Amino acid sequence: MDAIVIGGGIGGLSAAIGLAARGAKVTLLEKNCRVGGKLNVWAKDGFTFDTGPHVLTMLWALEEVFAAAGRKLSDQVELTRLDTVCRYHFEDGAALDAPGDPEAAAEAIAQFAPGEEKGFQRFLTYARQVSDATTDPFLRQDFGASVRGVPSSAQWGQLRDFLALRPWRTLRQVVRENFSDPRLRQIFELYALYSGSHPARASGIFATVADVQWRQGTFYVRGGLYRLAEALRETAESLGVVIRTETPVQEIIVHGRTARGVATDGGERLFADAVVCNADCLSALTTLVPEFARRSWTESRVEKIEPSTSAFLLLLGISGEYPQLAHHNSFLAADGEAEFNAIFESGVPADDPTIGIACQSLTDPTRAPEGSTNLFVMTNPPALSSKFDWQHEAAGYRLRVLEKLERMGLRGLRERILVEQMWTPMDLQSRYGAYRGAIYGLSSNGWRQGFLRPPQVSPDVRGLYFVGGSTHPGGGVPLCALSGTNVARRIAG
Ligand SMILES: Cc1cc2nc3c(=O)[nH]c(=O)nc-3n(C[C@H](O)[C@H](O)[C@H](O)COP(=O)(O)OP(=O)(O)OC[C@H]3O[C@@H](n4cnc5c(N)ncnc54)[C@H](O)[C@@H]3O)c2cc1C
Predict the structure, then answer these.
(1) In terms of pTM, does the model score above 0.85?
(2) Ligand 1 lined by 38 (C-beta under 6 Å)
(3) Are 381 and 428 spatial neighbours (Cβ–Cβ below 8 Å)?
């Protein structure tokens, strides 16, 4: 069988490997000059930055991709489990180190807010129950799509186990049941933002992030996470996948109600038995799928979808170092609620945003010249809309971010910048074709968006499949890898 994969993000590369490992002849077409999609890299004057993912978790999802090709993830990249999940910095100067070991994390919480460690243990137990109840039925298959027929008795059982977790409770409710210290509540509510969502509207099952971080571990890839994209590309090519970069697809060719291939921007027409689309499906559904074939996912339906948050990035190569920084840091908003209101109610970036900083050169000196530091600085603004004009307001926003960091202890930051790159949500849209620059396509706000993402198997066009963060099971490197593995299995058995 022949398959065409549109896009070389994690989902596309994983699908290509899974298909080729099962004997398919695969061609992958990527519009950019290299594969990886949002897992991307930027380098200047001896500094190297990952420009997307920094937190690598759920290694088993990637291990399964490499295993399909007879390889081991640990032979492909050098992994380091991080000792500290994150260092949280508060406006009043307080800081909480969250060690990667769950026992040590409970102790740190006990020191920071005595008595709260019991809630933390309960929260971790719930998080583990969520992981156990969701991994096979929801992450390894498109549960929503497979029960649109009549659920099997095994599926009824899985559904019962899932409902026992009371997934209709919001993350905010689950956090408040377990923590009373407002600072800890603020930290754990941030899990909703990891999927681009609001804690009072996203399901409590996002507590699973705690299990992922503490039991499954948070990892760094030596040389940078982009090494993963290189390892996936090399593995795909070793299986015979033909990867063509700088080849944007303009249209999916549909005859009757069946996908037959793709037409490229260069006017080429390529035919195949299956088309796997890794381009953001909210964009692809309205631009790549021909109009006559858009039945259930019409333009007006896509317009009603609430996108996930986007990202604002500053990549800063600075002289010297800041001893108060760990590998991962979060400089919290003084008022977490005001930040959520700005993003999700007003549709504008918060005046005082939570700022994530990754400092990879602490763990891996190859990322910056000697005596200097590479800082990846990120905030979570809303997706693009008419409410905020990045073209004219980005410079002012950049200043706000740098001033906040200086106020919270990174004194003299601006004077120490040697190299700098700024990316706004407009970059996510133009570089990766992300719908309105959203990181994960749609938010997980509300039951429908949280649990019934656009399906991996097109309901409208036979032979057309979707992989990547905007489809099932969701965004983030491991889930995108699973989306590719799931589709490869579905197509090629
Ligand atoms: C700033 C940032 C920080 C993040 N942090 C983390 C993190 O810490 N941990 C984590 O797990 N995840 C993180 N993520 C999310 C993670 O990067 C994504 O969920 C994941 O990489 C997306 O993979 P994907 O399969 O959806 O493909 P994408 O990365 O969306 O790639 C899609 C590819 O398709 C190509 N394409 C689009 N249209 C066409 C076309 N018409 N023709 C040909 N090619 C096309 C694009 O160029 C792109 O290469 C982060 C993302 C960002 C942006």
Answers:
(1) yes
(2) yes
(3) no
